[in-house]
Structure formats: C-alpha cells, structure tokens
Amino acid sequence: MNVVNNCQFKAKFPRIGVLDQGTFRITGIVPGEPTGTTNEIQFVVYGTDAADLSKKINTDNEAIIFSHVQILDGKVEFVIDNLEIIENK
Amino acid sequence: MTRTNNFNALVDFTGIKFFQVLDHDGIKISFCRNIGFVRGSPGSRVADGIRFLCYGPLAELVYASIIKGTRAFVISHLQTRCDMGGHYFVEFVIEEIQYISGDDHEAGEKKRLDLIERGILHPNTSDELKINLNYELGDDYGLQDN
Predict the structure, then answer these.
(1) Nearest to A5 among B38, B79, B90 (CB)
(2) What is the structure's pLDDT at B14?
(3) Who wins on pLDDT, A35 or B83?
(4) Domains detected in chain B
(5) Which has the closest alpha carbon to A24: A6, A39, A42, A2?
C-alpha cells in the first residue's frame, strides 16, 4: 500500500469489465459522502493480477478496494492494489 | 471520514485555485477548488492535475493558505459531477488538511482570526490553552499572583 497516494472505496460494478493485453478496466460505483449519491469511476488493474481479477469481479459483486489514483489521458482512474469481495449475490 | 469512500495523499499544490460563495437554497456556502499533484513513488506514477474541493469555513482557510508549492497531507473523499457542457469530473473533497511546507501561514492565520471575528470559528489558540492551564493550576502552583 502506498501511504502518500491511497484510496479506499466500497464499490459495485454496474457493467462487465474489459480485459485487453494484460490490462483489466472496469467501471465502479462508489457511494457518495454524506449524500449517498453515486459516483462512477474507472478502476484498472495491470499485469498478472489483471486476468485473476477479471474473473473475480462481476456485476453481482460488491468489494472493498484499496487503490491509488493516476491520471491517464487527462482522466482520473484508480489502480487497484488490493481487493476484497464483501458481497457476492 | 468514511472508510468506504476515502482518499489520502501527500499533495503538492500548483497554486491554481478558485473561490466562490455558492447560494444553496438561500444559504451562502464558501467553496474553493485547488489543483494539485501527487508525486510518483514505487508502484505509482505521478498524478498531475487532480482537483481538490473545499466547502464551508475550511474553503476560506484553504484558499488563503495554499499557494504555489504548498505541500500538504490531505484526507478527502471522492465526488463526481457533470458540468453543463457534459464534461465529467472526478474530484476530491478535503475533509482534513495538514500543511507540511510552503503554505502561506500568515494569510491562513489572518483568515482564521477573521472567521473567529465573524463568529464562524471558535477561538482555540495555544495562548488560550496556556491561560486556561494557569487558571486550572492557579491555587496549587501559586500562579495567581504572577
């Protein structure tokens, strides 16, 4: 875990993610604070974890995600460092 | 702070900042936006151009204190929004900020005193703490007549 760039979210996944050339991208919905609004953000996983996580995360899941922020092509995305599925319908 | 929507980072601020007083159903709320970047470290690349927001009295304090080159540790939460032009923004709302270096301490202090004068903040300085300690210890330690 990176101490100086560290995010912790509870997220749901409204759509199926895309695994492409060792990179897995998936849209996550994070509940707003304190209003409970929905924030749609991009999660990404690189390397060997990408294939594993693409099988683990699906639209029925809810997960606690440890990640760090990065900017790619001017867009904010969150690189998953660790993930724990907390609900699997 | 919530554990399910939380972003902590050591942020270097660019000095690009914006301040506005918002009108929310007749209630005036101070708002400020600062652009900052998070340095790269082993396992993460530099993240440049991140938007940090503040609301309320903290917005006024942060707007006064942050200048180009200010480094601070920020505890925040994620917020997304869409503007009139359909642009989607991912922003972070500052809940707590600890300045590490390069902040305009004088301007921040001036703003803090201004907020106290306006009755928005309650005074809480180290001097007052000292006065209170003297008051508490007065009888036993012979400080009353000093």
Answers:
(1) B38
(2) 96
(3) B83
(4) 7-141 (2.40.50.140)
(5) A42
Side chain identity at A21, as an amino acid letter?
A: Q
Residue A17: burial class (beta carbons within 10 Å; 0-12, 13-18, 19+): buried
Contacting residues of A for B8, CB less than 8 Å apart: 3, 6-7
pLDDT in tens, B15-26: 999 999 999 889
**A6 and B80: CB-CB below 8 Å?**
no
Report the distance separating Cα B146 and Cα B142, nearest Å: 8
pTM, rounded to two decimals: 0.84
Residue type at position A29: I
Other CB atoms closer than 10 Å to residue A53's CB: what's the count?
18
Nearest C-alpha of chain B: how many angstroms from A45?
12
Q: Which of B92, B41, B99, B44 has the alpha carbon at shortest distance from B73?
A: B99
Alpha-helical (H) ranges within B49-125 are 57-65, 105-117
Shortest distance, CA B56 to any CA of chain A (angstroms): 15
- ipTM field: 0.86
CA distance B144 to chain A (A): 47
A33 reaches B (C-beta below 8 A): yes
The answer to whether B86 faces chain A, any CB pair under 8 Å, is: no
